[in-house]
Amino acid sequence: MTDFANGAISRREMLGAMVAAGLTGTALPFQGSVQPDVLSRKVPSSGELLPVIGLGSWITFNVGDDRAARASCAQVIRAFIDGGGRVIDSSPMYGSSQSVIGEAIASLPGDQLVFAADKVWTSRKDGRSQIEESRRLWRVQRLDLVQVHNLLGWEEHLPMLFALKRAGRIRYVGISTSEGRRHADVEQLMRQYPIDFVQLTYNAADREVENRFLPLAADRGIAVIVNRPFRQGALVDAASRRPLPVWAHEIDCTSWAQLLLKYIVSHPAVTTVIPATTSVAHVRENLAAGRGRMPDERQRERIAAAVQSL
Amino acid sequence: MDEWLSYRLSDLILFSPQAYFRMFAQYHERIAPLQVVLLSSAIAIPVLMRRSPARAERMIAAILAAWWLWVAIAFHLGRYATINWGARYFAILFMVQSVLLAWYSMRHRHEQPLPNHSGATLLFVLACAAPVASLIAGRDWNQVELIGATPDPTAIATLAFALSSARARWVLALIPVLWCAIGGATLWALDSAEAWVPWLAGIVAVALLFTPRRAPA
């Protein structure tokens, strides 16, 4: 297995290793889940295994106190956990999403199944009270990962998060961005701070991070969470007007969504992708992208070309 | 600055169209049957203008002040804030407008009938017809905009009043125009054609506010 945490590795070498492995270089069965066939990746800083398909909550779980909608979201979360998913990502920015997630996971047999990835999002100097409020809404003993949302106030928040990690109040520290914003700052922080996770936008249409951040994350031993895998549904909407390519079955894909997800998780530097959905059927479809054969480099280019032509 | 320019309108919307419109349904369910009172107060406006023209301006301003306060508390803080943290700031905006209208109602001594203003009449009719626009745009019957109860038609009706008022027209119109821009932008980001209702009302109001009024004959 390629150890991305030690020593520099180029994109060519990384993808070469992936091709040589046949599947993904770092893909491993997830241990500790009810679904042993779900592919997983190691968090470089700890060696902890996480399934490659996670669950986002941007927009989808912000339903206020609408009981019916909250129950529907809970079904999605339950289906996600039942299907072998583990990483759920949210933020104080996302309205009622945290409390919706908390309500859903409180009804599960045990909250240890969930990897709680949240964010600190405040311009106040001390984000501790917000993190504590987030933990309370999640109804977990501690958040696993806290990321600085869109780098807002990172100068104050990062030292505070490292202190919380040292005190055992959180397990991992990260930063997040989306759609290419503040990439110069992201790069600087990835180089200068011992962060565990970076969250950024990556998909078959937005590939800038392939050359810049994914090799850097591999080099620095930083786990990567990928957001906006479908460009907020726009890629799936555009793709669904065309038939699924006949070669999709070669990598066990039965939908465009799975092709798009497999493109992302087949990159060995990616730890988890977090598609958001309000549909149980879609969450199952997404989870299926974490199983079966993964595209090699040639097949990845094929997917990218198909998406570019949409 | 460059970072802010990179945001699209849809990036600033934190909820889905379903969550937004279901929020209206929940709101109407919770305030029922108060809609009848609010609609009655809307019907009272043309009645006041006809039967009690000398006092109509002050009374209409008082009715509008009550609507803005109601929308601030019941709609923005009570409902909208459950899906949009920005709603608390909208509530402040609506409270400020309520205070302005209440001030106008109490301080204004101009006891002349409100002049006939075709633009104001048009906007008032548009505000009253808001439920029809909602239905045409595809909302369910229990999710519609309603004058006095929800922000957009309340702002449009207030623009109608500001156009007719004797003084402080711009002061009274500023927040309603701003809200027409915000309300329309929200609907636009949610892919609703209904966005054109507040936008059109705001554009018409601003154009008419810039148009000099004819001196009374």
How would you concisely characterize the structure shown here?
In chain A, 39% of the residues lie in helices and 13% in strands.
Distance between the termini of chain B: 52 Å
Uncertain parts of chain B = none
**Reading side by side through the largest sheet of chain A, how are the strands ordered?**
4-5-6-7-8-9-10
Q: Report the sheet with the most strands of chain B, covering strand number, pairing sense and barrel closure.
A: none
Mean pLDDT of chain B: 91
The coarse overall form of chain A would be globular
Give an overview in words.
The complex is a heterodimer of chains A (310) and B (217). In chain A, 39% of the residues lie in helices and 13% in strands. Chain A is α/β, with parallel strands linked by helices and 310 residues long. In chain A, strand 6, helix 5 and strand 7 (172-176) form a beta-alpha-beta unit. Chain A is globular, with a radius of gyration of 18 Å. Chain A starts with 10 loop residues before the first helix and ends with a helix. Residues 1-34 of chain A have low confidence and may be disordered. Chain B starts with a helix and ends in a 7-residue tail after the last helix. Chain B is mainly α. Chain B is 70% helix and 0% strand. Chains A and B meet through loops of A and helix 2 of B.
